[in-house]
Automatic annotation (TrEMBL):
Higher taxonomy: Bacteria, Pseudomonadati, Pseudomonadota, Alphaproteobacteria, Hyphomicrobiales
Keyword terms: Cytoplasm, Methyltransferase, S-adenosyl-L-methionine, Transferase, tRNA processing
GO terms of molecular function: RNA binding; S-adenosylmethionine-dependent methyltransferase activity; tRNA methyltransferase activity
Protein name, as recorded: tRNA (cytidine(34)-2'-O)-methyltransferase
Presence of the UniProt keyword Transferase in the record: yes
Species name: Alsobacter metallidurans
Keyword tRNA processing belongs to the record: yes
């Protein structure tokens, strides 16, 4: 589903439509900062990765900063909005997709984790990460190693690093345009 006419699609009750295809997805848990969400959705658009937004978000989806960061790329990304963690989680479980949570509260380095094409990579909110219940629901928790005393990376930077590794492992990068073509 694209974001037609500059408007965000309405929340859908489940993931059934796009879950038919087995690719890695990126999910955002109650995102706080519109610029980060826009940047991540642009990343998803460029790499051909569908995105899930688990609401409530900390900003109106029509927020100008959000639109500015994502620019016209938002027309090219498949986005599904979920009204709550509960509805997202029910649909994900029904579809049999693994939930891979990116969190600083993990022991497994993302480069050591074996990604699979159906995985949903979930990022926590900028202000508070993901709550305990989300940690408990995850099939795996992965970490980007950092120097001691460093609290966390920016969420969009985390998304780019982990998505790059997941697509590398699953041969999921889009085919590049023929040489000389944009
Ligand atoms: C700004 S961070 C959240 C910081 C929050 N205060 C906390 O304690 O979790 C936003 C999200 O980026 C991802 N993230 C940031 N640094 C990470 C790291 N080193 N390893 C894995 N995920 C990371 C996580 O998904 C995190 O929930």
């Amino acid at each position: 589903m694209g974001v037609a006419g500059g408007r965000f699609p309405a929340p859908v009750p489940n993931l059934q439509r796009s879950l038919a295809r087995l690719n890695v997805r990126l999910a955002l848990y109650q995102p706080d900062i519109p610029q980060n969400t826009g940047t991540i959705l642009r990343l998803c658009a460029c790499l051909g990765v569908p995105a899930d937004i688990i609401e409530p978000a900390g900003f109106p989806v029509s927020d100008r900063a959000f639109r500015r960061a994502g620019m016209d790329y938002l027309d090219e990304v498949e986005i599904e909005r979920h009204v709550s963690w509960t509805t997202f989680e029910a649909a994900r479980r029904q579809a049999g997709r693994r939930l891979v949570l990116a969190t600083t509260r993990a022991a497994v380095r993302y480069v050591d984790f074996a990604f699979a094409p159906g995985d949903v990579i979930l990022l926590g909110r900028e202000s508070a990460g993901a709550p305990d219940a989300v940690h408990a629901a995850a099939d795996a928790r992965i970490l980007i190693p950092m120097r001691p005393a460093m609290r966390s990376l920016n969420i969009a930077v985390s998304a780019a690093m982990i998505l790059g590794e997941a697509l590398r492992q699953t041969a999921g990068f889009p085919a590049p345009a023929p040489e000389g073509q944009p």
